[in-house]
Amino acid sequence: MILTAKIFTGAVALLHLYFLYLEMFQWDKPLGLKVFGNNLEKAKTTKILAANQGLYNGFLSAGLFYGLYKGGNLGFEFQVFFLLCVIIAGSYGALTVSKKIFFVQAAPAIVALYLTWNYKDTISGHLHNIFN
Q1: Residue 87 CB neighbour total at 10 angstroms
Q2: Domain limits for position 111
Q3: How many domains would you assign to the chain?
Q4: Distance (Å, whole) CA 7 – CA 64
Q5: For residues 3 and 96, what is the distance between their CA atoms, to the nearest angstrom?
Q6: SS3 content of the chain, % helix, strand, coil (to 5)
Q7: What is the pLDDT of residues 30-80, one digit of tens each?
Q8: Structure confidence by residue, pLDDT tens digits, 102-125
Q9: What is this structure's pTM?
Q10: Which of 11, 13, 128 lies closest to 63, judged by CA?
Q11: Could you tell me if residue 73 is inside a domain?
Q12: How far, rounded to the nearest angstrom, does the alpha carbon of residue 17 sit from its chain's CA centroid?
C-alpha cells in the first residue's frame, strides 16, 4: 500500500510539472492552444497569467516531491498538505472554469491522499504528533 501511495503521489507531482510546462512554455503554442481550448489572441493576452499559474503548479509539484523525498512524519505531512492544496485548486477550477479540471487535477490527488492517509499508522507516532 505504501508503494502504491507513493506512486500516486509521484504521479500527481509529475502531472503538476506537466501543467507548469504547458502554462509557462506552451500556452500560446499549438499544444497549449489545443490542451486549453484557447485561440491565439486570447492566449497572447493571458500568457503572463498562465505563466504565473504554471509557477504555482511547480510549487505544488516541488512540495509533493519533497514530501516523498523526506519520508517519515515530515514527509507525510508535506504530502498531505500539498495533496489537499491540489484538491482545493482542482475543485475550485472545476467550479469556476470547467468540470473536467476536477477529474484531471483533483481526482488523482484524492486517490493519492486516500492511499497516503491509509498508511499513516505505519509512520511511528504520527497520530500522536498530529493531536498533541
Answers
A1: 20
A2: 2-121
A3: 1
A4: 11
A5: 34
A6: 85, 0, 15
A7: 999 999 999 999 999 999 999 999 999 999 999 999 999 999 999 999 999
A8: 999 999 999 999 999 988 766 544
A9: 0.88
A10: 13
A11: yes
A12: 9
Residue 128 lies in a domain: no
Catalogue the long-range contacts made by 101-107 (C-beta closer than 8 Å, 24 or more residues apart).
104/15, 105/15, 105/19
Distance CA(57)–CA(73), nearest Å, equals: 24
- Look at the alpha carbons of 31, 32, 37, 42 in this order and tell me if their dihedral is positive or negative: negative
Does 19 map to a domain?
Answer: yes
Q: From CA 114, how far away is CA 37, in angstroms rounded?
A: 31
Assess contact for 12 and 64: CB atoms under 8 A: yes
**What amino acid occupies position 104?**
V
Domain annotation covers residue 131: no
